[in-house]
Specification:
Elements lengths: L7 E4 L4 H11 L5 E4 L15 H16 L3 E10 L20 H14 L9 E11 L5 E12 L15 E3 L11 H5 L10 H14 L1
Parallel strand pairs: 1-2, 1-3
Antiparallel strand pairs: 3-4, 4-5, 5-6
Length: 209
Amino acid sequence: MGRKLGGKVVIATHNPGKLKEIADLLAPYGIATVSAGELGLAEPVETGTSFAENARIKAVAAARAAKLPALADDSGLAVDALGGEPGIHSARWAGEEKDFAKAMRAVEERLAAKGATTPAKRRGAFVAALCLAWPDGEVAAFEGRVDGTIVWPPRGQRGFGYDPVFLPDGFERTFGEMSAEEKHGLPPRGRGLSHRARAFLQLAERCLG
């Protein structure tokens, strides 16, 4: 059994897509949320070499600054043929303007340069690390992963980031074609399909049950 979360939690992100997904996941548990942006918290420099390290940096910084428990996510797309890239640099590939159409084209161009034209050569995964930190320094970490294939051209206008080019195993629609409930809805209504939902289910069992 882990330390239980109650009351209000800071969602340590300035990404509106992540903010909505995490708030949606917490809502059934009656946890009040406030975003780092709403509190005017600065974004810490992410110096980690893994999703888990960067999630911890963000959660600990927000918890200390806000004097509240803070939940941070660090996630991205890891493409096998690209040696795991863009990985922890997934957001950076979109540039300062957060142009994920550009980032998806960059993934496709690099796959094409490697001759990755068949599904077997276009394998990848979405990975999400969640870190829950308390102001006193205690932390709890969780990680979720969903495997799939990189498709081209992008399909669907839903979701955010690289969702339109990611086809999860066992499905015929990309994350960009799925509704929010299909992508990250939790049981019994949803399947807890996404990488973030899978990490969150672990967090819920330990800290929200």
